[in-house]
Structures are given as C-alpha cells and as structure tokens.
Queue: 2 jobs
Job 1
Amino acid sequence: MNGMSLIVKTVTRVTVGVIFLFGCYLAAQGHATLGGGFAGGVVIALAFILYVLAYGRTIAEERLSKQLALILMELGAVFFLMLSFFGCKPNGNSESILCNLAIMVTLGAGLFVVFLTLVAFRVKVREEK
Amino acid sequence: MIELYLLMAFIIIAAIIAAENHTLLSSVISLGAVGLGLCIMFLLLGAPELAITQLVVEILVLIVLVRATIGISVPETYKGREFLSYMMSIIFIVIFLAGSYLSFISLPGFGHPIMRAAKIYIEKGAGLSGQTNLVNAILLNFRRLDLIGMLALVFTAVAGTLVILRSKGRK
C-alpha cells in the first residue's frame, strides 16, 4: 500500500490530530456527559486507521508500531484489572476517569492491531500444477 | 411510535437486500444501512450513549469490511432453486412468525413497568456510587464484571486475528 493522493494526505494531516483529541475528550468526559471509554477508544482507533489508509502502512508504523500497540493494549487491560481488584472505594468520579482511560487505551490499541493485521493479509490462490 | 415502525421496516428491507445481493461491496454497504438505522432508533428511544457507541462501531466495521471485500468477487454457486426448498422456507417463516407472535403477546408493554433490577439502580445508583452520570455509574460500578468480560473479548479477538491471519507460518 502506497497511500492515497496528495489531497487526502493533506486533509488527513490536518484532521487526524483533531480526531485523536476528540476520542480523548469522549473518554475523559465520560463520567460527566455522553461518551465513555468504549466510544473514545474506537474513535482513537479510527484516527490511526485513517492515518494507515492515507499514508500507507510503512509510514504509519513509524508513529505507532504493532509491537508498541500490543504492549499498550496489555498495559491498559492490566491497569483496568488492578483498578478492579485493588481500586479505591466506589464513591466519586476519580476512579471512573481512570477506568475510562484504561478502557480507551485497551480498545484503541487492540482494534488498531486488528486492522493492521487485516491490511497485511492477502488472499493468495495457490496455483495448481 | 410510527417512526420506529418505519425505521424497523427500513432495517428489514436493507437486511434482505444485503442477503440477496450478488455483489459483496453492495452487501457490505447495505449492512451499514442496517447499523445506521439501528443507531437512529436508539436516538429516538432516548439512549444517546448507546447511539454514539453504535455509530462509531458501525463505521469501524464498515471500513474493515470494505477494505477486506474490495476487489473480491464471489462466483455464483447456485443458479436455480428447487420448488421444494422455496416451499420449505415459506413454511418455516410462517411457523417462526406464529411462534414469535404467541410468545411476544404475553410480554408486558414496551418500557411500561420498570423492571425490579433496574428500579434499584435508578433509585439508589446516584447515592451509592456518587457519580454524575448514572449510565456510567451503572456500567463502571454495578456492572464492572461485564466490562472485564468485554476486555477479555477484545483480547480474544486480537489473539485470534494474529494467529489466523499471520503472514508467515511456522516451519
């Protein structure tokens, strides 16, 4: 994959940061208004997917490689488990914010890894001799 | 209430188009119409959090499916169907509709009595959890085990994708 045309690349360069920030906003404001960790994580994964589709895989993996995304996903999930077992008392918004951020990191990195694997996959028809 | 029935008819028609189409790309886009109609239904029923999640997940699934199915054509495997299979499918549809009518006629009305489990959450949820958003309080405090199951689901999806779709096999 070599990426798309110059117009798409320019628009992506401008908008991908805003989309990423909107995902962080959805997750960080989830305790007070609409949104939550799930929607924020999927929006962040969509921002990285837009980057992969516009610039191609090799340039996008310089920003966030597959190994780093896997490590981030595992760290987020372990952090959420730790919060669940040894967390503070369930009264107040502070634990809720941390849980939403952990879910956001886990889902964003996990769905990004799934998309990277699907992009690399090609169906090869075996030639019969 | 009439707009809900209209949206439901739209969803059913889009699903039938997605099932009966012979082009993969058209089927994927019809599936996207199904999901977006469901999103508007959630919005009309007064559940904007669910509508946001449904919309975002629907777009992600649409992108992944279009990327996976573009340029792939499926050869037609069956040309003419038998008369017997048509009759059997019609009989099964009639039996299914009659059974679902008999089972749904005895249910209480839509959202009329608030269920016992939900009533406790609505009355005491804000005081027990001390949070601003009641939906988030229920999800993160009372139903925390569901969220752990969801994260396990994501882990399984990633592991399954990495194992099945790896580019190099082990020698």
Job 2
Amino acid sequence: MSSSLVLPEGGGAAAKLRRVLVIDDSPAVRSEVRATLAPAGYEVIEAADGVSGAAAISDGATELGLVICDVNMPQLTGIELLESLAQSASSRSVPILMLTSEGRPSLMQRARRAGAKGWLLKPFNPAVLLTAVRKLLPIDPS
Amino acid sequence: MNQTSQDPGAKSGLDSISIPTLRRWLSVALAMAVLAYTAGVFLLVQQIFNNFGPGVHADLEWRTVHGAQQLARAAELGLAVADSAVVLESFGDFRSSEDVIAIVATSPSGGVVAQHGLPPAGSLSAVFALKPDELHQTPEYFASWSPVSIEGAEVGRVAMFVSTRRLTGSQRLLKRVELVTAGSGGIGLVLGLVVLGFFTGAVIKRDAALAHYAATLEDKVAQRTQELNHRNRSMRLVLDNVSQGFITIKPSGVMESERSAVVERWLGPPPLSGDLAEWLERADDEAGSWFRIGVEAVRDGILPLEVSVDQLPKRMQSDGRTFRLDYIPITSTGALDEPLQNLLVVITDITDELARERFEREQREMAQMFQLVSADRPGFMRFFSEAEKIIHQLMNDHDHPPQVQKRLIHTLKGNCGLYRLVSMVEVCHQIESRMEDDRTPLTDAEREVIRKAWTRVAAQARSLIGDETDDAMEIDREDYTEIVTLVAERAAHERLAATLRTWKLEPVSLRLRRLGAQARYLAERLGKPAVQIVMTARGVRLDSERFDGFWSSLAHVVRNAVDHGIETPDVRRAGGKADAGTLALAARIEEATFVLQITDDGAGINWTRLAEKAAAQGLPHATHADLVEALFADGVSTKEEVTQISGRGVGMAAVRSAVLAMGGRVLVNSEPGQGTSFEFRLPAHVPQLQKERAA
C-alpha cells in the first residue's frame, strides 16, 4: 500500500516488471495484443517492424519484462531478430514469445534454439496468450 | 523380546498333532473324567450311607429292645391293676414317635390289656414266640417284648414294634443318588462327546478343505498363470500386430519400460538412454529434433498443455515408411490444467493409407485433367508446354538468383492450380515457403522433388494429349464469315492473303476465355459466388509465342481480383453490390499497342495499408506512382495470411517483370469500395490489316 504511494506515476521499478513489447507489422495484431494484456495490468509498448523492435530491446533505457514477436516481417524477420539477440548476451534475459501465423516446424525449432519461450499461432486465443504471458511475466494484478 | 519368542518353532509342536488324534485323546479324557466323577460321587454317597446306615440300624434296634424294657417298667402298675387307660398313659412319649408302629401290653396269659397303633398281622404271636428282649427283625419292622413283673411275679408283657422305614428310605435314596449320578455322568459324557465332536468336526472339515485347497493350489496357480499368459500374449499380439505402436514417456522424454515391440521393428533398437527423441532422431532427424524441442516446451508449461502438445510433430519417416504421431497427455486427474505425468505417444504406420490416398488423388487429377483437356485442348497444351519450359529452367539454370527461382515456382504453382494439379501445387507451395524463410537457392533435393512430381503429371498429360505438337490452328466463326465475305466480294488477293496470315496469330478471345474460366474456378475454390465474366476482344489476334509469358503472368492478376478484390457476399450486400462479383476482361488494339483492361468491382486497393507496407520495406511511398510501384514490388502483400492461393506478394512482381520484358507498362486505377482496374499497354506489332479493322 505505502510503496504504491511513494512511486512516481508511469515509471520506476514496478513498471519495468510489467512492460511488454509487441513487435508486429500488423497494427491490427498489435492492438489485439494490447487489448488482451492491458486490462490484465500489463503496460504494452509497440514496434512495427523487426528493426525498431530490436532497437527497443537493445536500448537499455527501455526496460522490458517480456517481448511478443511476429515472424514474417519485412527487412528483419522475427527469427532473424531472435538469432541476433541470442548473439548479444545482454538482452538474453528478456523472455520472448513468438506470435505468428507461421507454423513451420523448422522455424519453430530455430526460434526455440535461439531462446524463444513459446510459439503461439495466429489467430490467437486471448485467454491462451494471457495464460502464457502470466507464466512468463507474473505480476501482481493490482 | 516377546516377539522373538513367537517364532514358528513354537507353532510346530501343535502342528505335529493332527486334529483327529486330538479328538480321540480329548474324547478318552472326557470319558475318564465323567467316569471318575460318577464313581467319586457314588463312592462318596456310599461312604455317607456306610457311615450313617448302621447307626440308624442300631438306633432302631436299641429303640425296639430298650423301648420294650422301659415301657415294661412304666406299665407295671397299670398291668397290675389291669387298667388299660393307665397302661396307655404309661406309654408316654413313645406314642408320638414316628418310628413306632405299635405298642402292645398284654396280661401274662397273652390277653391284650392296652394297645397303641396296630401291629402287623400275625406279628404279635411271632414276637412272643421269641425270648424276652430278643430282637425280631423283618424288612418292614423290628419287634421285641419284655416281661412286666412286680417282686418276681409276672404281671404282663409289653411288645414294641418299630418301623424300619427310616432305614429302607435312606437305602432307596442312596439307590436314587447312584442312579442320578450315573445318569448325569452318562448324559455329561454324551454331551461332552457331542460338543467335542462338533467342534473338532468343524475344525477337521475346515482342515480338510484347506488341505484340499492346498493340494490343488499349485494347479490353480498354474492354471491362472496360463490364463494370464494367454491374455498377455493376446494383448502383446494385438500390440505387436496393429499398425500402431504405443510408447509412454515421462515429462523428461525418457520412455517407460512397457511399449509395443512393433516400434522396434519400425525404428530399430532403442537407445540405451531411453530417450524417445534420440530414437526418433536416428530414424528421422528433423522429426526427432522437432519432438525434442516440443517436449521441452511441453515440460516448460508456458503454454497450456493442449497447445504445446498440439505443436509436437505429427509425421515422421523411417526406412521409406511414413508414420503418424498422436499424443495423449496423462495427468493425475485427467484434466489438462494439471501438471503432466506421462505422455502417451501413439505411432501409426500410414504408408499404405498415404499410398492409397495418393493413388486416389492421381485418379482424381487424371479425371479433372481429362475434363479440362476435353473442354479446352489448345489451352491445356499451352499450359503444358509452358510448364515444361519452367520445369526445364528450374532443373537446368543453376545461376538464377533465388528470387527468380521463387517467382518461377510461384508461376508454376499458380498455373498448376488452375488445372487442379493439387500434388504439384503442394510441392511448389512447400518449396516456395522454404525459400521465403531463408532466401537461398533451390537445392538438388528440391529439384528432384519437383522433377518427380512433374514427371508423374506429365506422363498423365501425355497420355491424354498424345505427342501432338502445337501446330493446329484455331479459327472462329467470325473469321470464317469474314473470309467467305471477302471471297464473295472478289476482294484483292493481297487482302485475302493478309487476312489469312492473321490466322496464324492467336485470337485473344481464347486467352480471355481461359482467364475467365480461371477466375470462376478460383471463386469456387474460395467459396465465393460465381464471378460474372464480361469479355470484349472482337477479332483481336496476337502472336501467341511472344505473349505466352504475359498471359501466364496474368493468372496472378485474376487471382488477386478474385481473392483480395471481390468481397464476400455479406460485405458486398452491405456496400449495395450484387452478391456475385464482376470481372471485366477487355482487349483492343490502339495504334500499334495492345491494350488489355482487367477490372473488378471489388473492395479496391487499400492504399493506406499499402503505404504502411511500403514504408516498412523501406520503399518510397509518397506519391501514387510510388505506391503503384510498391504494389508490384517483391514481397509486398496487404493480405495477412499466406495461403496456397495467394498472399506472398510475389505474383504482382511476376506480372510487372513480364510486362517490362515486352517493353510495356501498367496503369492502375483503384477507388476504395468501387473496384480496381489494371490497364496493360504492350507494343503489338500487329499486321496492317488488323490495325485497320480495329480502327
């Protein structure tokens, strides 16, 4: 109770733990993910492609609790993004969940080897997404 | 300490005595106890009577003799005066004694003076026949008499009769006690024996049953074992002979010991580690490592169990056979939100099933091809020769960049789709997807897959079209009427020759008819209402060879119009349009330019979305021209889903490259909600006459 009074609004350590980055080139998917996670207490930030998503992850200022990433994106695919992140040790601690219409096992395996925590298929069931997100990034629902 | 003493050693002593022996011993002991008791009681009672019987006898004897003497003295006076009342009075207490039967006082001559009681008949004379004070004994009574004398002179006699009832009564009692004792002893003995017999009998019976059971137990165990073995054998027979194998794994991926033997026949000996993934990897590296990663995800439990289990591999290959993999998660309660306990993996050999399906599909493809060939033989032959060309390029031109190879495969897929060659479409789609992923060129293995699939299709196709070459000429009724008219009008020979020369050119109407048929077929495949086709191509003819590439690339435009352009009936209705979409195909000649317009009345291009996509790709997107350019760029599609029909953004690039190759250009006009129109303008090199007529 007292700590929530002390913390400044929209920042600080508490916000970091509930911040989820959604990387998807479809605004429809991004807003659907936001609509699923925001009511559950997560702070959702967006990136419209792999390049800006990778930049947000590597940027130390944006402290993230979880990344939800599409696969088929122009320029930098989700798999390429994941593999490039796996190279740099610093961002390895952020769990990454793949959310894609892609179902090819070769890609699923590549993603897993590069450290993806899960692979969800579009169109996704919001309840399943929320379950997975809660497992990866448990927060106090208040 | 106590417990150690209760070892089997203590039991064995009892065990050594059989129950019948015990019963015999107990019976004897019981009989002896009853006899001893009876005899004891008998002897004791005897003893009592022996002790008291003589006393009673002596007492009675004394009472008789002494009583007579005592009364003789008491009765002196009475007898002297012969007064019976006085004599009776002198008898005193003897009169009230129960033992006394009678007392008789007589005169010396024997006349009765006084009498108490009644002596037994004839007994009086018998008594007086004895000497005085002598005891007369009979079983019923004792008697004696005594003389009464005063100063030596006999004045009378007194006789006393005493009953022996007391003595005989006790003797009868003794007899009765003996009888009762003996009787109760006998009854006790009988009862004891009955009870003993009953209990030992029950024990013996039980023991006999036990003994019988024990004797037959071995047989029973043997029989039951045989039954179980039989059943196990049947189960194993079932497990081993169905085309399914069952393996249970722990969440770690390690197999439980029980599993179908048939799996070993399929996959070879299992690995020592017991790791199922390792076993699968040996047979099918791809499926095995997919399984390994999938089980990891199942174990992680990030996704719900049914989702992660659904992501496990569903097919695998081993030794030329194909297997289907099914999974049944086992949790403690059976509910899927519980932690996983075991995973049952069911492996099914579906090689034969697949072969049958493939055969059926080939039959179907063959039948469809036959229909299509019958309906439009030249069209099919053109498709066929063009596909052969593409296959030839794919097989032999190793220098093509991956992008070009992918485009060729995409075109091949589209054209095969129009002729419903599903097997070819699948092969192309798979390879195209792979190339999309890693952007590397075709591998030799993929070439082989394409070659095989095409060889099969080609064999079927050739059986339908024969070795006939593409040198037939098509003339429609209009051409025929025209030449007849020219001849009738006696037109100049030059004119006739020029007209006839156009015949070797292909009527554009034929090509348009094919495009229309493709559009209708696509609509049917996509579950949309039949598309209205409006065609205008009066008399336009073109050099078929030169335009081949262009025509086949148009399949993409038609596909886009039907798949992306024309909306679903409910959306169309909401927009005030007819349920069925319309596709207009209009060809004409303008100067030396062939103009083809393909117009749909669908949703129109989503320019905003296209601009977003272009921006994401790093393409210019400021002007309409930029966006038209982007529309034809590789990899741009406004569609979210990739299907076998369209969505990769490859097709439009193929169209543009075909148009550019012919030195032409494309105009795009699209209004949101109104539809899209593509106008292709290509240099035609048409003969002079054609131009005149077109004008």
